[in-house]
Specification:
359 residues; 13% strand; ten-stranded mixed sheet; globular
Length: 359
């Protein structure tokens, strides 16, 4: 099986062709995947955080409302949720319960976390409900971690202890959950790439992925960092030298890194919004997570409105239509956004050639 068996550097719409066919007939279809931000606050201050512009008030999603909306989403055809977003999801006290109920409803559940506040007890409760969990660590030494995650000395040791506890909980309960580590590459941590390969393979995580930085259009702490051809070749060489055939899959998201370095979108319109969505810590449903606080993408609120009305409502339809027909992606959107590969695929699909029956 390929090192990138999760297609992190690609997309998976090929396996949802029924939803794609429904979209070809009627642009308004239920999302396949929804990101949920259980709360607005974080215990780290990452220097690359794309959501630093919404820091401030502490808001937490009410469990009962969220549980109802998750069950409604499952009934409407949402297939997966990821808990991540504006704050650190492990800080929501009901996360294990919410994840368990989502799984019971038939939705695949995942979490992206900095992992630091994980404990044996938490992992024992949470991991059985998850398809995968991703620890965003982005460093292999305490010194780099302090710089990149804006944390105090000792934080790195706590995070590594938590990661090891998660691996033990997975082994004890013989869980199928995939435990991965993400390393977002920026100028301040490139020297940790080789140590990271040894450290996380040694811990035995299921995968270690190297992901490119991507500047959020609204973020306050913009660094302007990008990759040179030499940098990309050097990262690829380090990974090749380490080897990719061990039990820990090593995934270098090279296609995404190349695309970010080239800094040009390979599609002209956004057609991806029907396939995903984002629920903010205030309960607002956005048709794209990049546009938090932007009315053009805010299509309902889960405290006031049922999911059927949000997902099939006029506002979502208008937002999807706006993104496809009017949004100037080159000027407004995040380069290499989460939906870039999907948009490339959908553009290809919409650009119907002549004589299609001559396959
Ligand atoms: S292209 Fe723009 S609107 Fe579409 S998903 Fe990406 S950032 Fe959002």
């Amino acid at each position: 099986m390929a090192a990138d068996c999760f297609a992190l550097d690609g997309h998976k719409l090929f396996w949802h062709l029924d939803r794609v066919a429904a979209w070809q007939k009627d642009r308004l279809v239920p999302p396949i995947y929804v990101e949920i931000s259980p709360l607005s606050y974080c215990n780290h201050q990452c220097i690359f955080c794309g959501l630093d512009f919404i820091r401030g008030e502490r808001v937490i999603l009410e469990t009962e409302v969220l549980l109802r909306r998750i069950e409604e989403m499952a009934a409407l055809g949402v297939k997966s949720v990821m808990f991540a977003g504006e704050g650190e999801p492990l800080l929501h006290p009901d996360l294990p319960l919410i994840a368990a109920r989502a799984k019971e409803a038939g939705i695949d559940v995942s979490v992206t976390t900095n992992g630091m506040s994980g404990t044996t007890e938490l992992w024992e409760k949470l991991l059985p409900s998850l398809t995968w969990i991703r620890f965003s660590i982005d460093a292999a030494t305490s010194e780099t971690y302090q710089v990149v995650h804006g944390v105090k000395p000792g934080a790195f040791q706590r995070t590594i202890a938590s990661l090891k506890e998660a691996m033990l909980a997975k082994q004890r309960q013989k869980l199928p959950v995939t435990v991965g580590v993400q390393f977002l590459m920026i100028r301040q941590n490139l020297q940790d790439i080789e140590p990271a390969l040894s450290l996380y393979s040694g811990i035995g995580v299921d995968y270690l992925s190297f992901k490119p930085y991507s500047e959020h259009p609204q973020m306050l702490n913009k660094s302007g960092f990008t990759y040179t051809r030499e940098m990309i070749d050097d990262i690829a060489l380090k990974i090749e030298r380490f080897g990719t055939s061990g039990p820990t899959r090593i995934i270098f998201r090279k296609a995404a890194t190349d695309a970010y370095a080239e800094s040009a979108q390979k599609f002209s319109h956004c057609r991806a919004l029907p396939f995903w969505g984002y629920i903010s810590s205030r309960g607002d449903f956005y048709s794209c997570s990049v546009y938090i606080n932007d009315e053009r993408f805010s299509v309902g609120n889960i405290y006031q409105t049922r999911m059927s009305e949000i997902l099939f409502g006029d506002k979502r339809g208008e937002s999807i239509d706006f993104a496809e027909k009017e949004l100037e992606i080159d000027h407004e959107c995040r380069v290499n956004c989460r939906m870039a590969r999907i948009n490339e695929f959908l553009e290809f699909l919409d650009d119907k050639p002549e004589h299609i029956n001559f396959i």
